[in-house]
Design brief:
Elements: E1 2-7, H1 11-23, E2 28-34, H2 38-46, H3 66-74, E3 80-83, H4 88-100, H5 108-111, E4 120-125, E5 132-146, E6 151-158, E7 163-166, E8 193-200, H6 210-226, E9 232-236, H7 239-249, E10 259-262, E11 271-280, H8 287-306, E12 319-322, H9 334-339, E13 343-345, H10 352-361, E14 364-368, E15 384-389, H11 399-405, E16 408-413, H12 431-442
Parallel strand pairs: 1-2, 1-3, 8-9, 8-11, 9-10, 12-13, 12-14, 14-15, 15-16
Antiparallel strand pairs: 4-5, 5-6, 5-11, 6-7
Length: 446
């Protein structure tokens, strides 16, 4: 157990102080709070004035200064500090100050991963060997809304109140979008719903984003079903999630009835799972997950073929321009699109099966980067994808999948000035660059 001071008496520092004392007593003994304004604050204490309203802080009668924190560390009475500051610049300044003094800094994002195997009843590999699964007994799973209801997190909590997972890609607490720790003030167990066996797949982003859902959820569902898992799946409810589950359920009898749909914006009672199967460390865009996505895609294509659907259809376009419905559109490209005979396609307006067949039959795809590119998992090896990006939003989320699929890949990035870029802005690709990329893709060099 590490003895620590939480540095910073602002809202976030006090929040961390409460969280550590409530849920991390197995890892940290919180000695107290520190702050650069310690002298001023301690004068308030000496005059009998309280500086905290919360009842939990009634035991605090002293705030540690820099010098006092250093003396405690030198005397061996603390092992280090946890900085409770959200501002990145201030955090870095404090980190530099304490590093110079040789004081250890503990970071909940990196140093306090609570892996489920510490509490596991047993651990097993899936039939394919691609998933490692930890089984934990008596865990409550519940969603917790933040960001004004736009996103929700799932927490896995043992009977003792130990947080095992903020549900995302890892069994740890490091995946909040702003790299901060979010926990509810308390865990209310009074109205929990009992489940015998389940997997929690309430991944960050999977509630609202098609790509995150397929990458984070569907590979795991498919692998668990292949392994003979017969329990429930806790999944955020959405139209695309239901469509995917419905399709894969045709391959695994009873799957659809075992999905428990969690309303994204509605309050949800905790589920008390007697045997929770925790899927360990499958990163969304990793090589490992790319291999599983290809296996899933091939299985889906084979299933569609077995239903009598002709996969390769001559009437479907071979050259397509993949257009987005939302923001970040590619503009000023109509001439070059016409020159190379690309048919404009919007996948959001199609059924899942139509999306699959459209990408399967395309030999050349020019795309506005976005979640719909998830369907490149269905493209044939040797085909070509030209992915276009606005200046300020360039990521390589699909590269491992494209590499695994053996798809020829080109990326074009707008050359707008970074300072003038807004996330939702439309953008222009240099026409010469686009022309060169499509000449390469089509083989139509002069």
């Amino acid at each position: 157990m590490k003895r620590v001071i939480v540095w910073g008496i602002g809202e976030y520092g006090r929040y961390l102080y409460k969280v550590l004392r409530a849920y991390y007593t197995h890892r940290y003994e919180v000695v107290g709070l520190g702050d650069r304004r310690a002298e001023e604050l301690n004068k308030q204490f000496d005059s009998g004035r309280a500086i905290f309203d919360e009842e939990i802080f009634l035991d605090i009668k002293h705030i540690y200064s820099y010098d006092e924190a250093r003396q405690l560390f030198d005397d061996g009475r603390i092992d280090g500090l946890i900085i409770g500051i959200q501002d990145e610049n201030t955090y870095k300044q404090l980190e530099d100050i304490f590093n110079v003094q040789g004081i250890e800094i503990y970071n909940l994002k990196c140093n306090d991963r609570a892996f489920a195997e510490e509490f596991a009843e047993k651990t097993y590999d899936s039939v394919s060997g691609k998933l490692t699964v930890d089984v934990v007994k008596d865990v409550r799973v519940f969603a917790y809304p933040i960001w004004s209801g736009k996103h929700r997190y799932a927490y896995l909590v043992t009977e003792s109140g130990m947080v095992l997972q903020e549900s995302d890609r890892y069994l740890n607490l490091s995946n909040s979008p702003s790299d901060e720790l979010f926990l509810p003030d308390r865990f209310d167990y009074n109205e929990s719903i009992d489940i015998e066996k389940a997997v929690s797949l309430l991944q960050i982003g999977a509630d609202v984003n098609y790509g995150h859902f397929v990458f984070s959820v569907m590979t795991k569902v498919y692998e668990m079903e292949r392994s003979g898992f017969d329990g429930n799946y806790l999944i955020y409810d959405s139209a695309f999630a239901r469509e995917w589950i419905s399709l894969v359920a045709e391959m695994f009898e009873g799957l659809e009835k075992r999905v428990i749909w969690i309303g994204r914006l509605d309050g949800t009672s905790p589920y008390r799972v007697k045997e929770l199967h925790c899927i360990n460390n499958v990163v969304d865009s990793s090589k490992k997950n790319a291999k599983m996505l290809v296996v899933l895609a091939d299985a889906v294509l084979e299933h569609i073929r077995e239903r009598g659907v002709i996969i390769d259809q001559d009437e479907r376009p071979r050259r397509i321009y993949l257009k987005r419905n939302g923001t970040r559109k590619l503009i000023g490209c109509s001439e070059v699109i016409g020159k190379y005979g690309l048919k404009t396609v919007t996948l959001e307006d199609m059924t899942l099966e139509e999306q699959i067949l459209t990408l399967r039959n395309a030999n050349i795809v020019l795309a506005e980067h976005g979640a719909s590119l998830t369907n490149c998992m269905f493209m044939k090896s040797g085909t070509c994808l030209v992915d276009t990006f606005g200046t300020g939003f360039v990521d390589m989320f699909f590269v491992e999948l494209l590499n695994e699929r053996k798809i020829r890949f080109r990326m074009l990035v707008s050359q707008a000035e970074y300072a003038k870029y807004d996330f939702d802005d439309d953008y222009v690709i240099d026409p010469t660059l686009m022309d060169m990329a499509l000449k390469d893709a089509t083989g139509e060099w002069n």
